[in-house]
Amino acid sequence: MKIRKATKQDMPQVLELIKELAIFENEPDAVEINVAHLEREGFGENPLFTCFVADTASAPNAKDEIVGAALVYYRFSTWKGRTLHLEDLIVKESERGKGIGEALYKQVMQFAQEHNLKRVAWDVLNWNTGAIRFYERSGATIMKEWRVVHMDEQSLQNYLNF
Predict the structure, then answer these.
(1) Is-catalytic flag, 105?
(2) Could you give the number of structural domains in the chain?
(3) Which of 25, 77, 114, 134 shows the smallest number of beta carbons within 10 Å?
(4) How far apart are the C-alpha atoms of 8 and 14, rounded to whole Å?
């Protein structure tokens, strides 16, 4: 398995991983994007994200298959400056427990260090105890005092028309 930067041609398989993650997170109908969105937003003139993939092509007798992905993008912290947000770290269910997630995670952290970023931040579901234990073992801090806040499209419309 090889960890590498994703290409535009990887986006159909990355989208399948995103859909698998949505099912894992009990949100099977939540994915609204398609391959064209990923290609346009990740590989245009001003890409909005960087994606790393775990590719089995380098394994002996393996077919070329994307079995994991990590999607990141830059953010700006008023306290720290330029930071990185890890949007998703996904490993195919059939491939979990093989070190793929850790390899992708390490690639993200190396990317942040190479770009002199001050922080990497991400969200984790409170019931995903395996991921929480892994992150804590890696030295990450779980911010228990903070809450993730979202305003979806309908709520935004309602608020602005209030």
Answers:
(1) no
(2) 1
(3) 114
(4) 10
Strands (E), the chain: 2-5, 50-55, 66-77, 81-91, 120-121
Residues 51-88 pLDDT 10s = 999 999 865 555 679 999 999 999 999 999 999 999 99
Domain assignment of residue 36, given as a range? 2-160
Candidates 73, 74, 105, 135; catalytic one: 135
What gap in Å lies between CA 55 and CA 94, rounded to an integer?
A: 14
The CATH number given to whatever domain includes residue 118 is: 3.40.630.30
Rounded to whole angstroms, the Cα distance separating 151 from 86 reads 19
Asked if 82 and 117 touch (Cβ cutoff 8 Å), the reply is: yes
75 three-class SS = strand
